Each structure stands twice: as C-alpha cells, then as structure tokens.
TrEMBL record:
The keyword Hydrolase applies. It comes from Streptomyces noboritoensis. Residues 1-33 form the signal peptide. InterPro entries: CBM5/12, CBM_sf_5/12, GH, GH18_Chitinase, Glyco_hydro18_cat. Pfam families: CBM_5_12, Glyco_hydro_18. This is Chitinase. Residues 40-330 form the GH18 domain. Keywords: Hydrolase, Signal.
Amino acid sequence: MRRMRTLRAVLTATVTAVATAGLAVLGGGSAQAATPLPAHVFAPYFEAWTGESPAALAAQSGAKHLTMAFIQTASKGSCTPYWNGDSGMPIAASTFGSDIKTIQSRGGDVIPSFGGYTADTTGTEIADSCTDVGQIAAAYEKVITTYDLSRLDMDIEVDSLDNSAGIDRRNKAIKQVQDWAAANGRKVEISYTLPTTTSGLASSGLAVLRNAVSNGARVDVANIMTFDYYDNATHNMANDTQTAAQGLYNQLAQLYPGKTSAQLWGMIGVTEMPGVDDFGPAETFTLANATQVYNWAVSKGINTLSFWALQRDNGSCPGGAAADNCSGIQQNTWDFSHIFEPFTSGTTAPTNDFSVAASPDSGSVAAGSSATTTVKTAVTAGQAQSVNLTVSGAPAGVTASLSPTSVTAGGSSTLTVSTTSAAVSGTYTLTVTGSNASANHSATYTLTITGGSGHQCTATPWNATSVYTGGTQVSHKGHNWKAKWWTQGEEPGTTGQWGVWQDLGAC
C-alpha cells in the first residue's frame, strides 16, 4: 500500500525442507497451530507507525481482524525485520504482542504485511534486501510464531515488481515456510497485495504470481488495490472494482486451471481506499460504492475485503485531498468499517444494535478549566440493550470521565473534560466507545486547549536550508518529527505518512 506514487509506479499499474537451524534461532517459538482465518474476512489495514493501539481501534471500529502495515528491514542489505523498519520496534512480544493477544481473545486476528510503498522503493522489503532465502524464511517464521498467526501478507509494488531476483527469493522462502508449517501441522496462508488496472493485474503483478507457481509456493489470496489508477479517466470506483476483480479471476483461471469457479473467487481479495484517493476527487470511493462492493463481494464469495486504512475512516476533512488520517468526504467515523463488518464469515448485523454520538462534538477550554458534552445513544435495531461507555485519547494534563459509565441504549451520559494549567495547548481527539456483547460503536469529541503552560518543544526547530539524515529529530509547528532518510527543504507535516518525516506527536 502506498500514498503518492512515482511516475514509475503509475506506469506499472497501467499497462523443500526449511533451514531448520536458522528458523530455530530466529523464530523463538513453537510451530503449534494458530486459529485459521474465516473463509471470508474483513481485515482493513492498520497504520502501525502512528503510536495508536490496534486493539483499541479494532474495538472502536468493530473490525475484528486487521491487516497490520508494515514489516521491513531497517536498511538495505539487512535480513532482520522490524515493524516499519524501526529498530526500536522488533518482532517481539514487546511490540504489539499485548494488542494482538487482545484482538485474538475477542475472536479476531491480525495479518502482518511485509513490504509497502516505502520498503518497495528503498530496497528494505525483506526479499529485496536479504539475499539469503533461508534467512527470509526464518524472518517469516519468526513473525508467525511470535504472534501465533495463520496468514502473512506480501505488499509488492513499484520497484519490487521489477526486482526479479527478489521476487524469486520471496517465493522460494514462502515455499520453505509452507513446507515447515505442513511438517508441523500448522496452517499458514499467504496473500499477495498487488496494484491493479481496471481490467486486472498488469504484466508485472501477474509475473509475481507466475513465479510463485513455478516455485511451488501456494498463493492463498491475490489481493488487488482497487484505487490510484492514475489514468485520467472517469471512474465509478465500485464498478471498477468489479471489472478489476473479474480480470484477476480470468488471470487466475489460466494460472490455476484445476480450480473451480468458487475456488478462484475464494482466492480473490479487494482493498479499497475510502473517500478521495491519492489521484484526487476523480477517484473517490463513496459510502454508496462501499455498499455496492460489499453486496458484490458477498455474492461472489471472495476471500478478503479490506481498505486503506482504518485511521482514514472518518470525515474530519470533508472536501479535502487524500490524507493520512481522514477520507476527504462527508461521513461519520467508522462508516466504511460498519458497512464491511458483516462480511467476516458471512455474518449479519447485530439483531440488537445502537449508535453513539457526542453533542456538541467539539469544544474549547482554557487550561485549568473544564468542559462537558452529552454522549447520546440510540437504538438502531431490535431491543434496547445495556451499553458500556469508555473514553480514550486524553493527553497529559487532561482528565476525561463519563457519568454514568453504563446506559441502556436510548439513554445519555455526560463527558467531563478537566484540564490543568500544565496541559499543553493544542487540539486533541477524544474517543467515546460504547460496547456490549454484540457490537462496538464510537464517537469523537474534538478538544481545543488554550493558554496551557505545559512543556514546549525542545528539539531543534526545523530549518529549510539544513540537511537532515535518517533518525534526526526536529520540532515544527508544535510537533516532534523524525527523518526517515536524507532530506533537505521538505517541510515536516507536508510529506504525508509515506514521506521522509515521521510525526512523533505533539510536544
């Protein structure tokens, strides 16, 4: 998955036994079987570099399964995987382990994704970076055993689509892992996430799957990114999803002639981008599109329904361009998630359901003072049930509380936000989540604090003429930022989540 594409990416989209010792050293876990994913699963992408909790957002959105992006090496030539290529985020229980266990305890799971736009353009996608097939396989196995998972995703695009040596190493490593899993009674699925045209995979994406076949590597899901076509054409994004998937179906039928029609559709995954994609308003995926795609996906029996990304599923920037944290269209928070949620295992919406809203949904307060808002619930289906309420997202110097913390759907609660003089001035988003045995829904409250005396930014201010190398931290417009690689003249906050500057949060 990616944000802004290079010209090269635009052109691309248009047109036996395992090395046991290596696995044992890196894996750090047994091969006991994880719970397989459902035959039909909704698993939106979670941006793992934001500092947010995947378990919390899964609960708030109602998405039980997440595709977590991304895993890559810290530098080209390395064989060691990290979350986001950050050496401070190793593949270990200390990184996301608690969140993943929580998600699994709720009946869901995660799908770690290797690669992504940044890795695929910097040589840090592990099969591009590492030339030892055994070590690549060991890295995959380590992720599987560390988090007790049953599927890995390979997000291959831009430069990685042209790296024939990397493609071959990756598929050889996948075959090794599949042999290891089979020998240990463990089911491991592999999905490939690939760019698409409106009529199916381009030749480069198809070549990845052909190489998998030639190496005996089983591809369980071919997941196409049905957005960012960059063809200057008029688009109905739902119709284009269907033609792209039909084209993929025809390609898979040639690659796997022994499969039935149902089996071929059961290999297909679709990933959308809610709202305005990177190309602009001409490629806008609407809520009506989402409903059409959901109904089509159910009728065809595809395997995976997803979107990029969970953090964009809100309407906080209507009329805007593609953004890291909002859809650019008018919508309620989690609207896209709620449309796609019932896809998992073919389930239906809860018999007894409810909604949550904050009124007003924003407020401003001087540091040292308090503000209140009313959290309203309503019955949207069936009978009124008890709803437990929680609030998250309060920054340092701010206390948020609800009274009462449990209501019967249709009732209200008061959210009180109290600040101290040490609170840091700025704008923050608090999330109120309502949950019961059958559903989770949430609402947001935007809090603006003025006159705070909290700590100020201490990192060196960003300078347009200075040269910054990877790992350097600066402050700019009330936030700390870390450079991912060499840069000069690129302003923090303007390069997007795939750009050079990583937002470390308010300071």
